[in-house]
From TrEMBL:
<dbReference type="InterPro" id="IPR001882">
    <property type="entry name" value="Biotin_BS"/>
</dbReference>
<protein>
    <submittedName>
        <fullName>Acetyl/propionyl/methylcrotonyl-CoA carboxylase subunit alpha</fullName>
    </submittedName>
</protein>
<dbReference type="InterPro" id="IPR016185">
    <property type="entry name" value="PreATP-grasp_dom_sf"/>
</dbReference>
<dbReference type="InterPro" id="IPR050856">
    <property type="entry name" value="Biotin_carboxylase_complex"/>
</dbReference>
<dbReference type="InterPro" id="IPR005479">
    <property type="entry name" value="CPAse_ATP-bd"/>
</dbReference>
<dbReference type="GO" id="GO:0016874">
    <property type="term" value="F:ligase activity"/>
</dbReference>
<dbReference type="InterPro" id="IPR005482">
    <property type="entry name" value="Biotin_COase_C"/>
</dbReference>
<keyword id="KW-0547">Nucleotide-binding</keyword>
<dbReference type="InterPro" id="IPR011053">
    <property type="entry name" value="Single_hybrid_motif"/>
</dbReference>
<dbReference type="InterPro" id="IPR011761">
    <property type="entry name" value="ATP-grasp"/>
</dbReference>
<keyword id="KW-0067">ATP-binding</keyword>
<dbReference type="Pfam" id="PF02785">
    <property type="entry name" value="Biotin_carb_C"/>
</dbReference>
<dbReference type="Pfam" id="PF00289">
    <property type="entry name" value="Biotin_carb_N"/>
</dbReference>
<dbReference type="GO" id="GO:0005524">
    <property type="term" value="F:ATP binding"/>
</dbReference>
<dbReference type="Pfam" id="PF02786">
    <property type="entry name" value="CPSase_L_D2"/>
</dbReference>
<dbReference type="Pfam" id="PF00364">
    <property type="entry name" value="Biotin_lipoyl"/>
</dbReference>
<dbReference type="GO" id="GO:0046872">
    <property type="term" value="F:metal ion binding"/>
</dbReference>
């Protein structure tokens, strides 16, 4: 076994690798950016070393700095995790050139599978079916537009390099092709340093099914069954499960063998995933699946495979990298029960899943048999705008699919996150969705069911506002009591306390609030039946009912109320507060999150129509298009392309048409 390992990654996967490495008796070495100095993985590692400022290109993507730390610390190996440098052949080559074991496949295998067009040609020679489309090197926009026409809409534009939904656009009609191509190429360049794309036929009713493969350095290759990753949003996986619903033994055998042949074709070693798209219109059939790509690394969703096989894939990676032979054959492997994983993200489903950043004032997960939590953060940590906004992976394992989904829904419902908004409530509804439960889903399931899944603006939770206002009032009363006691040792007069003391009658007092950034007013209600006591009502909520909340979390700036997996921030409102920078709220297009202003498509004096594209902001490796809220004239451009902008910052000022 290797003596030590440097983890060239961060967050959840760094913590995951460290746990297994320590169990195997390995010395663990972390590298971190300035933004991650106080992170959980830095605390867990035996030693940690700073490699640069927050932007990944200046830290986690710096091969030279990572290799330098490995040499200085005497690291026997480097584990790349997933993302960042995990599929960069030059990183594997740099490790080999410096006598460091790369815990992953050979650089030649990474190169062979790293470019989707070349990979498709390679596996096609090995007899693996591929999706119809253009996979060549010619990148002229007019040529690609013509190929899309020949293939037939809808088509999928995909980055040749990389994965994770970056540089991918579905195009429904020819009129949208140019803008989609431009956006996909720009995002691919930013994410992978390679703007090239391919164009494929978009499969109707597609199921995204992948096969986990594993190979040692002695020619042995097996598959560890399949995972279904069809529940996606913006081509990024949301919930993954194993085994795939509706999978037949015949199709599992056919897909598994195809994946093994793909791995053999490139001399693969270690953990890898062969991804297929299946036409699910008539159920899963062995003659209707196609190779998409091979991920030459560990996958985010590997825990569901571990759950149904009882294997530790990270341990197997270390053993394969040490030169050991696989301790089992294909015939030794079997599926045990069903496992489902949900990706808990710092994002707001009520605002089109915009990334959400900030301090985690509270973070609690359900613990128990059948539940696994993989996370890289803890309460008190910050979710920054620099990296993927994943908070945790919540995994459930049960005897049946229904049992696993029930466990996952309960775990998500009892997850407490205060600070950044999360998709916890959305994920819970997804687990409970009738069509998904019945196995009637494909990659478009989420888009077709957004309203029922709680996506988009939701009614204000009046009960949560009442609880938050009550907590603020109690906090203020306690503050004033303490101030009064400090002024005098004499008992305080009830007349001097702002606690609703009165002799008789029923009255209410307005309480000005800021709720999730909006200015509102609740009512503090007093009753002579309970002298000195009060309750708070808001909207049509009954001030005397017995409603409950999941958690009440106090922060210096307000109170977070968690109810039914949904978060409401209630803050005191200062009536004398003036927002000088954003006084012209009605006419400003603002940055929806902290990020980089990539492009501005209008100039002062331009007339724009409602829904017209105005600008693009990039945050957490994804592009977000800003559109005109109404017909208007552009009065001012308040920020230049390339600038880092804060959430809520004015970007474009519009003037309503007269």
């Amino acid at each position: 076994m290797l003596e030590s390992v440097l983890i060239a990654n961060r967050g959840e996967i760094a913590c995951r690798i460290i746990r297994t490495a320590k169990r195997l008796g390995m010395r663990t070495i972390a590298v971190y950016s300035e933004a991650d100095a106080d992170s959980l993985f830095v605390q867990m590692a035996d030693e940690a070393h700073l490699i640069g400022p927050p932007p990944a290109r200046e830290s986690y993507l710096r091969i030279d700095r990572i290799i330098d730390v490995a040499k200085r610390t005497g690291a026997a190996s480097i584990h790349p995790g997933y993302g960042f440098l995990s599929e960069r052949a030059e990183f594997a080559e740099a490790c080999a050139a410096n006598g460091i074991v790369f815990v992953g496949p050979p650089a030649s295998a990474i190169k062979a599978m790293g470019l989707k067009d070349a990979a498709k040609a390679l596996v096609q020679q090995a007899g693996v079916p591929v999706v119809p489309g253009y996979h060549g090197s010619k990148q002229d926009p007019d040529f690609l537009r013509q190929k899309a026409y020949e293939i037939g809409y809808p088509v999928l534009i995909k980055a040749v390099a990389g994965g994770g939904g970056k540089g991918m656009r579905r195009v429904e009609k020819a009129a949208d092709f140019d803008a989609a191509l431009e956006s996909a190429q720009r995002e691919a360049q930013n994410a992978f340093g390679d703007p090239r794309v391919l164009v494929e036929k978009y499969i109707l009713s597609p199921r995204h099914i992948e096969i986990q493969v594993f190979a040692d350095g002695h020619g042995n290759v097996v598959h560890l069954f399949e995972r279904d990753c069809s529940l996606q949003r913006r081509h990024q996986k949301v919930i993954e499960e194993a085994p795939a619903p509706g999978m037949t033994p015949e199709m599992r055998q056919t897909m598994g063998q195809a994946a093994v042949e793909a791995a053999r074709a490139v001399g693969y070693v270690g953990a890898g995933t062969v991804e297929f798209i299946a036409d699910g219109r008539e159920g899963l059939r062995p003659d209707r699946f196609y190779f998409m790509e091979m991920n030459t690394r560990l996958q985010v969703e590997h825990p569901v495979t571990e759950a149904i096989t009882g294997l530790d894939l990270v341990e197997l990676q270390f053993r394969a990298a040490s030169g050991e032979t696989l301790p089992f054959t294909q015939e030794d492997l079997a599926i045990d029960g069903h496992a489902v994983e949900a990706r808990l993200y710092a994002e707001d489903p009520e605002k089109e899943f915009l990334p959400s950043t900030g301090k985690l004032w509270a973070l609690e997960f359900l613990e128990g048999e059948g539940i696994r939590i993989d996370t890289g953060v803890e309460a008190g940590a910050d979710v920054t705008p620099y990296y993927d906004p994943m908070i945790a992976k919540v995994i459930a394992h049960g005897a049946t699919r229904e049992e696993a989904l029930d466990q996952l829904a309960e775990a998500l419902g009892r997850t407490i996150v205060a600070g950044p908004k999360t998709n916890a409530a959305f994920l819970k509804k997804l687990c409970e969705a009738e069509g998904f439960r019945a196995g009637q889903f494909d990659t478009g399931f989420i888009d077709r069911n957004l309203a029922s899944l709680g996506v988009g603006p939701q009614p204000l939770d009046e009960v949560a506002v009442s609880f938050g206002a009550s907590a603020l009032i109690s906090r203020e009363i306690e503050r004033l009591r303490m101030a009064e006691l400090q002024k005098s040792d004499e008992p305080s007069s009830p007349w001097s306390m702002p606690d609703g003391f009165q002799l008789l009658g029923l009255r209410s007092v307005g309480v000005p609030l800021r709720v999730d950034g909006e200015r509102l007013e609740a009512r503090e209600v007093f009753s002579h039946e309970h002298p000195g006591a009060s309750t708070v009502a808001f909207g049509s909520s009954d001030p005397w009912d017995d409603a409950q909340v999941d958690q009440e979390v106090e922060a210096p700036h307000g109170v977070y109320i968690i109810r039914n997996g949904r978060q409401t921030l209630v803050q005191p409102y200062d009536p004398f507060e003036v927002d000088l920078e954003h006084m012209d709220e009605g006419g400003s297009v603002k940055a929806p999150m902290h990020g980089k202003l990539i492009a501005v498509f209008v100039q002062p004096g331009d007339r724009v129509e409602k829904g017209q594209r105005l600008a693009i902001v990039e945050a957490m490796k994804m592009e977000h298009v800003l559109v005109a809220p109404s017909d208007a004239e552009v009065a001012e451009i308040a920020a230049e392309p390339g600038a880092q902008v804060a959430e809520g910052a004015r970007l474009i000022v519009l003037k309503a048409e007269e």
